[in-house]
Write a structure and sequence with these properties.
heterodimer; A: about 300 residues; alpha/beta; Rossmann fold; Alpha-Beta Plaits; six-stranded mixed β-sheet; 14 strands; about 30% strand; elongated; B: about 250 residues; 10 helices; transport (chain A); ABC_transporter-like_ATP-bd (chain A)
Chain lengths: ~300, ~250
């Protein structure tokens, strides 16, 4: 799959001397949903701002659709739609006027049919004549998405799109994003909600302290770094474990009612068979077992901690 | 040239004027009418003619300039400051539009509004005093140049300001006093010799003088000097704006 965005050796140092980005290299594939994860202040918004033209890079090069964002900014920017993190709206404009304004700003001829489609897709059609100030937070967020889609971009940046949005609306947004991807739009998503990345993304990038720590297919990442957890539900409560089980590093939970064993799926041996055998030898009986895959959140926390 | 983007910004800004008609047009017209009542009728009736023109008629160009200067600055500074304040500037900065086109949209709308306002005040003045414009083309040239120049100046203030207080500071503390002291209501020939020299340091004197000349062919300084000063200020504002966009000052960092 070809790259639609190519970031090479990108650095950003603010006037205060703070290095927000350090030699970032990143390629975004055409048509994918890419989730950029990172803690607060990691450089996510700075990276997006530079690609979209809102901030100047200190060093490095960015290509969007093969066009340099600085020397060929008109072509590069016309490919991009941006939904920023904050709800920046023209409070006293109508929904229709503000979305139409965005289309004009990006140099596209009037197309009421397209604006109508975008508003209908985002369930905003019945609010088209309402002033933005009268809309709820969730609707304002959708207006921002409508503005970003008004000029038919090939790449859509969603910076924390579901921050402060209720669960139902969040799932509605995910649907919108999936539909956009199906229509051929590449989506770059930053989020604090790991479950959002886990649910949506094809690939995941982790940024911390201005550096890209990792970029990987979500499935590969889960497989490569994922640990599994075996929970053994005991027949009776146990207060302490015999010395013979010490090397399994078991955790005794629920007041001694369950044993928890973490194991690596990549390892040659998981140790499950010998653990169960040793439990029997030690006279510890159990009536149920279950295993769980570690979540992306666990992986993310581990990565950020080690970087 | 992204003419659709210029048009979008221009129409967006003009739409704001129509939404706030009372504040944008009616309010300055009412204040100017009050100036006519106070200076033209009440005080003017006790002042003999100034350089062959009745006092009420004499102050018309100065009053128009007073409104055009202050409104150009107010319109343009607010026009660019408000998106910065609300955060909607992100969209302008991320659009495929050049700095020149951004300025054209904002400054074009601000200047249009103050030119319309100037012409409305001129028509209002015609209700109070007899008017005859000797050089209508020059009058319009001065009006447009001044509106554009001070809209550019307002644009700079709007970029520089990081709070509403700063937005008001220069117009209130610098521009309004300079306009009042720039011969809006008197000829600087009426001042004592020492103060006349001081008055010549005020750039607004040259704008009002040139504008008044286009009406009555009377001027405090030569018309070519007036035109030269206006153009010089225009070029200075353009240079500052070029620097702002080149460096991203208060916009991109």
């Amino acid at each position: 799959m070809s790259s639609i965005i190519s970031v090479a050796n990108l650095s950003k140092t603010y006037g205060s001397g703070f290095k927000a980005l350090k030699n970032v290299n990143l390629d975004i594939k055409r048509g994918e949903i890419f989730a950029l994860l990172g803690p607060n202040g990691a450089g996510k918004t700075t990276l997006i701002s530079i690609i979209c033209g809102i901030a100047n890079p200190s060093e490095g090069k960015v290509l969007v659709g093969g066009e340099n964002i600085q020397t060929s900014y008109r072509k590069a920017r016309s490919l991009i739609g941006l939904v920023p993190q904050e709800l920046h709206t023209d409070a006293f404009e109508s929904v229709w006027a503000t979305v139409s304004f965005s289309r004009g700003l990006f140099g596209k001829p009037k197309n009421p049919d397209h604006i109508e489609k975008v508003l209908k897709d985002l369930s905003l059609w019945d609010k088209k004549d309402n002033k933005i100030i009268t809309l709820s937070g969730g609707m304002k967020r959708r207006v921002m998405i409508a503005k970003a889609l008004s000029h038919e971009p090939q790449v859509l940046f969603l910076d924390e799109p579901t921050a402060g949005v209720d669960v139902e609306l969040r799932k509605g947004m995910w649907e919108v994003v999936r539909t956009l991807q199906q229509s051929g739009v590449t989506i770059i998503l930053t989020t604090h909600y790991i479950e959002e990345a886990e649910e949506m993304a094809d690939r995941i990038g982790v940024i911390n302290k201005g550096e890209i720590v990792l970029v990987e297919d979500k499935a590969t990442l889960m497989q490569k770094l994922g640990k599994k957890r075996l929970t053994v539900h005991l027949q009776g409560k146990v207060t302490s474990l015999p010395e013979s089980l010490a090397h399994y590093e078991l955790d005794l939970c629920d007041n001694g009612a369950t044993l928890v064993y973490d194991y690596d799926t990549k390892g040659e041996r998981t140790g499950i068979t010998s653990l169960l055998s040793d439990l029997r030898t030690a006279g510890i009986r159990f009536n149920d077992l279950d295993t769980t895959q570690s979540s992306l959140e666990d992986i993310f926390v581990d990565l950020v901690r080690t970087s | 040239m992204n003419h659709r983007a210029i048009r979008a910004i221009y129409l967006f800004e003009m739409a704001r004027t129509w939404r706030t008609l009372l504040q944008s047009i009616v309010s300055p017209v009412v204040s100017t009418s009050l100036y006519f009542v106070v200076f033209g009728a009440a005080i003017g009736s006790r002042i003999s003619q100034v350089e062959g023109v009745s006092y009420g008629t004499f102050i018309v160009p100065g009053l128009i300039m007073l409104s055009v200067l202050t409104q150009s600055i107010a319109n343009a500074s607010f026009g660019i400051y408000f998106p910065k304040f609300t955060g909607t500037i992100y969209e302008i900065l991320s659009a495929p539009i050049s700095y020149f086109e951004i300025v054209l949209g904002y400054v074009g709308a601000a200047a249009t509004k103050s030119i319309i306002l100037g012409l409305i005040i001129l028509a209002t003045a015609g209700l109070f005093v007899p008017l005859h414009i000797h050089h209508p083309i020059w009058m319009l040239t001065f009006l447009v140049l001044t509106a554009v120049t001070f809209s550019l100046f307002g644009f700079i203030i709007g970029i520089w300001a990081d709070g509403f207080e700063k937005l008001q500071m220069i117009p209130m503390l610098v521009v309004t006093p300079l306009t009042f002291l720039g011969g809006s209501f008197y000829s600087i020939d009426m001042l004592p010799a020492g103060w006349r020299t001081v008055a010549l340091l005020n750039p607004v004197v040259y704008l009002i003088s040139g504008f008044r000349w286009s009406f009555y062919e009377i001027a405090d300084v030569s018309v070519s000097v007036s035109m030269g000063m206006t153009v010089a200020f225009l070029v200075a504002c353009l240079a500052v704006i070029w620097w702002i966009f080149r460096t991203g000052y208060r916009l991109k960092n």
